[in-house]
């Protein structure tokens, strides 16, 4: 568990390479710390100057009596490495290295960065950087950064911890947080991540009392386990994590690689990781900050329950109050698309509204109409009635330009104050044109304010999800790997034959088509007759991977005569193969009839290890690309989610008049497949069952491909 | 073609029901017109007062010498109808009726509204409303509204025409336009649309010289032809139309119906209409205004071409310049997802950048890094070099907080000014934190400014699409309906038999499975032997719609013996049917083998008439719901788009090793199907071919269902 206390709460800070010019990289931290009121001890280190920006300087670290908590290194590449060697010997607890020109430039930079990392690790120094913009703790006025941005103003001290791999993104985020009055607890940029990763900062923030919400910007991740541990810690602490992970497209991934030498990895796998730990993902800066605002400031709905359709979400009944029927419809569209129920207004409140405004709509959205200008009490009563009604978990009110209207604002203040003080009313979310003062007044009483009505409705869904996650902060434990048989594979093998794969999967308890291995035509007929026609007859040769391309597969074999012919054909296919190919016989497998095909697989991701995927098989998987991913081994809940997310569920629920089959049992097959893959440990490269046929008796594996790493070391 | 000149450019305005109290519904128009500088003649009509708000009043319209251009009616329901009767007789050219309580309340209101509409129509009065918030022409200071919102400030006069069915939405939109300094030409709210529809206003704005961009808010549309004519006029005039159509979900549609009695209709059909005319669709208020801002203010890219993948779009090469590598990646992700090419920087500019900042990235995104603070010239040179480089059509620059920095701003002004004056440079789009004054300065020189970098990239795609649409302002003409045979159907028939349908479609030139109608088993065998086994044998009975449910379908019949058995089975199915069922024989059709199934259909939409749909057939169509819609009869280009949008194209382009087949020929089949449906005129209810089997010889219809309206009147 990384310790960032010396970095973010240091009592002494040395600035190595301190500059007498406050705007230089080495001058800015001295300027910020002294101008903005850091209360600890600042020690500029300067080869010649006796004084730096009015502070006494030392010529080198050797001149100090005691080790410092934090050293800021603002030196050129090779000098920064020298400085690190010195820090290693004198007990420094943490170091921030601004210097660029390390791994991101390739060549020597990579080796120098490795040495930097090794020194820090060997001597227990918490290392931030190199090639980073540093860190800040606004509460304790720690500004270990060369960004001038704090000079133009600070955001309020608050509970949002912000960590960014990119410095410039971090600086812009700081400016936006300031503009939006989003309160920050800590601000950290990790750059090349020779020491601290974004993951380490998340993990520390998860345990930091000052932080309730974590915003993280990632370009890539080199250590999947570290990220998973960090996200698990945040989840266990009930702290929502918002992540922007860029490089989602090929072009983006290319730029990410050249930017901070990040391995972008496959976006769907990142998404599976984020899903696993309930991360809120943002693809734009607007979303990043809005999620931060909503999660940090927003009260959780008073009523919610986990969503039956999408376990990552939660549903909560919402009252939509509007002065515009049109915007009411927009909000209803949004609520419906987010599965938020909109129960109608309770009868007494509805009657009161109707008697005041006959044309008002008391269905939900509750349209108090433009009449509200003349009768503001009707709007306020509708807000109060719905916020106090136990049928609703949140109230979203669209007030157009009316929030600040002199005829409405005083009454609105009274209503909001009363509801706030009651302690039991449902949270309020307003949208409309609201000036900053009034917005702050409303926010201080637990209300959220948006200009865009759709965003107010989205916020309700986000808060319900956060509530559900906090209530189940302990995620389902990873399933204990069942004691499954492990196939006996020679060290040099790079695959299992289909027969070996089918045998092994069947032994693992995965329902499979009845099958056998035939060495000659007679045996093929014997097997076919024992399992029943029709059968498929497929070539088994370790030298031929794509057996159907060479005529090595015959389907729908329905008689002994046809079986002999098919056996002869696949044997000939091996013999006629261009390069010499061994012939191990032919797999004879019962043709399974069903009404749909699923596929399930497991593969090794270079960052996150084994990842399971599932979806509809056959043509659809290629055309519609709705495969769902999950970290392997799968939990049962995750397998169920994958069936839903990939639409595979549709084939199980009475599709086209076929009987519904037990989705839990199908999910269990997915879990078992992911566990079987895990038993192969680092040897597993890929496992794929396609098709997994949907029949009235459940799903049945009809084909299996397993590829392996040749030694017991995976390729990365 | 509606004439809105008396409504929006009146020389005389009478306010019927004028109030001496300026904040009442009947007082506000008088107040607005006199306070805000209307130059024409204002005539308050008041039963008793001699003067209203300082203006001489008349007791009734009869007291006037000459007819007025515009009458504003601010009276209760029945009085407003009386007033309309009077207006009808005295030559009034236009009327705005604010009054609510007409059709939206049901009952008598419907009849009264019908009378209002009939009076206006009979006497050539342009009628706006009832139940509307009126209209404004800010340029001529016409404020025919009771909304007090203009009192608190007006948006600049500009070229955006705004029309909203909802009054409150319109008022909020007015306030947002004012806040965003979006210049308005006209502002119209249509309410219950007894006279003018949103469509009429669009059509008029399309011909209005003051308007270049049209923003429209719709809850529903009762007259599809009118909307199509309006959108076609705007398209022909090269004026982009942005539409927010609410009621996209079931809950939203329900609220829409109760709000302005709109028929929401099926959202996919609206989308097909919008696609047909190149409408820019916005689902949130933010998008609505941002599209207005981009289309009204943004310069079109200097280089673009129609997109090969998605004809509704256009592609344009973009230079992404950034001071943050991280944000550069976000922008690259966005550009890639919008198919915007990102060519690398030209060599000489790249070399100059690298010599100034060795760690800069000259690939695209062009990352000038945080060094720009020390070396602002590098940023400015990168912007100038890319804007002048003929490889790029637009330049998007992310400047974080730096736009206004004292070290950057003067140089940036010089660069932007020089590029602007050159007249040939690519348009500039900035993102970052920019204060209002600087934003306006940049906008005055043709640049756009965004806070969210992703939105700056999206704007480039929007502007390229607008450029492509303006260049082909004449949309492809609707195809001349081919002279196709029309089936001879008795007036009472509500369907064709499958045999009739197949015969007819084959006669229309749609490739169909060879087939015949067998009256007895011998004839079934004769037909099967003449067309070749395997065949399908299907019951023909006008009394049984779902023939497979009663055992009326036998597939894969491979011999004469099997054909006889199958015939007997389907005949028995008719005989065993619970209710007496006629037996017309059995359809014998060749089983067509292919590698995929498409579906194509035509159905009647109550608002827009015949609509064609197409997509992948079989299981996929139900599970993935990727059916594409288009207005029928289809153009060839639209049919091609539908194949792409529904992913059906994937089955035609060498799927899984099958040969690629001619997509143009498949599109031609879709066109022919839509034309065939049109020959049935109003009798057609639905036509569906499913499956349309994909074979190496092209697509072949294997099944057809045609349902009809019993008389020659469609049901609506």
From TrEMBL, chains A, B:
Is Membrane among the key words of this record?
A: no
Q: Which PROSITE patterns match?
A: ATP_GRASP
Question: Which keywords annotate this record?
Answer: ATP-binding, Nucleotide-binding
The UniProt record lists the ATP-grasp domain at: 502-538
One Pfam family in the UniProt entry = ATP-grasp_5
The record's section on InterPro entries has: ATP-grasp, ATP_grasp_subdomain_1, CoA-bd, NAD(P)-bd_dom_sf, Succ_CoA_lig_flav_dom, Succinyl-CoA_synth-like
Any single GO molecular-function term of the entry would be:
ATP binding
- The superkingdom of the source organism is Bacteria
Q: Which family does the UniProt entry place this protein in?
A: In the N-terminal section; belongs to the acetate CoA ligase alpha subunit family.
Name assigned to this protein:
CoA-binding protein
Question: Organism, per UniProt?
Answer: Cupriavidus lacunae
């Amino acid at each position: 568990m990384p310790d960032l206390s010396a970095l973010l709460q240091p009592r002494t800070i040395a600035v190595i390479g301190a500059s007498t010019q406050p705007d230089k990289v080495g001058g800015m931290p001295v300027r910020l710390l002294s101008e903005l009121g850091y209360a600890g001890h600042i020690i500029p280190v300067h080869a010649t100057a006796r004084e730096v920006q009015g502070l006494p300087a030392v010529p080198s670290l050797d001149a100090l009596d005691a080790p410092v908590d934090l050293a800021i290194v603002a030196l050129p590449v090779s000098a920064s490495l020298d400085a690190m060697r010195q820090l290693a010997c004198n007990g420094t607890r943490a170091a921030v290295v601004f210097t660029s020109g390390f791994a991101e430039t390739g060549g020597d930079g990579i080796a120098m960065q490795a040495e930097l990392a090794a020194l820090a690790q060997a001597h227990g120094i918490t290392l931030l950087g190199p090639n980073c913009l540093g860190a800040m703790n606004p509460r304790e006025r720690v500004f270990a950064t060369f960004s001038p941005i704090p000079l133009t103003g600070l955001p309020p001290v608050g509970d949002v911890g912000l960590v960014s791999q990119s410095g410039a993104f971090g600086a812009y985020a700081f400016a936006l947080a300031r503009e939006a009055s989003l309160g920050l607890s800590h601000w950290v940029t990790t750059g090349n991540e020779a020491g601290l990763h974004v993951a380490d900062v998340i993990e520390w923030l998860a345990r930091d009392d000052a932080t309730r919400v974590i915003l993280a910007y990632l370009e890539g991740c080199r250590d999947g386990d570290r990220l998973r541990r960090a996200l698990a810690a945040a989840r266990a602490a009930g702290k929502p994590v918002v992540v922007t992970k860029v490089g989602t497209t090929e072009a983006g991934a290319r730029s990410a690689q050249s930017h901070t030498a990040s391995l972008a990895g496959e976006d769907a796998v990142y998404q599976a990781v984020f899903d696993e730990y309930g991360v809120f993902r943002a693809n734009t800066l607007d979303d990043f900050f809005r999620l931060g605002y909503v999660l940090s400031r927003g009260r959780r709905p008073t009523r919610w329950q986990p969503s039956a359709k999408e376990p990552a979400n939660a549903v909560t009944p919402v009252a939509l109050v509007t002065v515009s029927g049109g915007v009411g419809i927009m909000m209803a569209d949004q609520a419906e698309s987010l599965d938020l129920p909109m129960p109608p207004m309770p009868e007494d409140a509805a009657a009161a509204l109707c008697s005041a405004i006959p044309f008002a709509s008391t269905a939900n959205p509750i349209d108090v109409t433009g009449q509200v200008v003349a009768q503001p009490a009707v709007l306020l009563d509708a807000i109060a009635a719905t916020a106090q009604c136990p049928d609703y978990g949140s109230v979203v009110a669209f007030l157009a330009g009316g929030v600040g209207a002199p005829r409405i604002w005083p009454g609105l203040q009274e209503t909001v104050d009363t509801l706030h003080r009651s302690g039991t009313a449902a949270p309020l979310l307003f949208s409309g044109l609201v000036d900053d003062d009034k917005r702050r007044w409303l926010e201080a009483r637990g209300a959220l304010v948006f200009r865009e009505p759709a965003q107010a409705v989205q916020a309700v869904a986000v808060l319900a999800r956060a509530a559900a996650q906090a209530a189940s902060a302990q995620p389902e434990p990873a399933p204990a790997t069942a004691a499954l048989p492990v196939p006996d594979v020679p060290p040099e093998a790079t695959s299992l034959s289909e027969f070996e794969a089918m045998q092994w999967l069947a032994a693992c308890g995965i329902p499979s088509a009845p099958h056998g291995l035939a060495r000659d035509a007679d045996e093929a007929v014997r097997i076919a007759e024992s399992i029943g026609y029709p059968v498929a007859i497929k070539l088994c040769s370790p030298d031929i991977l794509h057996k159907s391309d060479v005529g090595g597969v015959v389907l729908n074999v329905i008689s002994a005569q046809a079986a002999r012919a098919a056996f002869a054909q696949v044997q000939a296919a091996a013999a006629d193969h261009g390069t010499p190919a061994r012939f191990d016989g032919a797999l004879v497998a019962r043709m399974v009839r069903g009404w749909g095909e699923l596929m399930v697989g497991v593969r090794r991701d270079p960052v996150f290890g084994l990842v399971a995927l599932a979806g509809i098989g056959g043509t659809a998987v290629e055309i519609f690309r709705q495969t769902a991913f999950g970290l392997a081994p799968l939990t049962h809940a995750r397998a169920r989610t994958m069936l839903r997310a990939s639409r595979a569920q549709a084939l199980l629920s009475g599709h086209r008049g076929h009987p519904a089959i037990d989705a839990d049992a199908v999910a269990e097959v997915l879990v078992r497949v992911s566990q079987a893959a895990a038993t192969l440990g680092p040897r597993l490269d890929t496992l794929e069952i396609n098709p997994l046929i949907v029949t009235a008796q459940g799903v049945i594996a009809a084909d299996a491909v397993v590829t392996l790493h040749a030694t017991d070391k995976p390729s990365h």
